[in-house]
């Protein structure tokens, strides 16, 4: 299988690494955070993406109304 078409390329993003670190620390008892905060890099990134898409949509709508 070609590297470009494989399901797992071996690359890991900063947020994925941070999430794995937080999960590991939670499971070994080094942090006593809620699971909401342990998984926060994932949901915060999702919220930022949604906000960016909403801003882009609003700007697109505003520019369409001007023309």
Low-confidence stretches: none
How much strand content do the residues show?
Answer: under 5%
What structural class do you assign from the helix and strand content? mainly alpha
Number of helices: 3
- Large-scale geometry: elongated
| Distance linking N and C termini | 49 Å
Total strands: the figure is: 0
Overall mean pLDDT stands at: 89
The biggest sheet amounts to: none
Order of helices and strands: HHH
Query: What is the gyration radius calculated from CA atoms?
Result: 18 Å
Considering DSSP H and I runs of 4 or more, what fraction of the residues is helical? 55-70%
Key features?
67 residues, mainly alpha
Short synopsis of the structure:
The protein is an all-alpha fold.
Can you tell me about this structure?
The protein is mainly alpha-helical. It has a domain at 36-67. 67% of the residues lie in helices and 0% in strands. The protein has 3 helices and no strands. The longest helix has 27 residues, at 40-66. It starts with 13 loop residues before the first helix and ends with a helix. The relative contact order is 0.09. The model has no long low-confidence stretch (mean pLDDT 89).
């Amino acid at each position: 299988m070609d590297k470009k078409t494989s399901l797992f390329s071996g690359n890991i993003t900063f947020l994925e690494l941070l999430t794995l670190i937080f999960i590991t620390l939670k499971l070994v008892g080094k942090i006593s955070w809620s699971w909401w905060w342990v998984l926060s890099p994932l949901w915060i990134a999702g919220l930022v993406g949604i906000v960016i898409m909403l801003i882009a949509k609003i700007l697109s709508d505003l520019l369409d109304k001007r023309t």
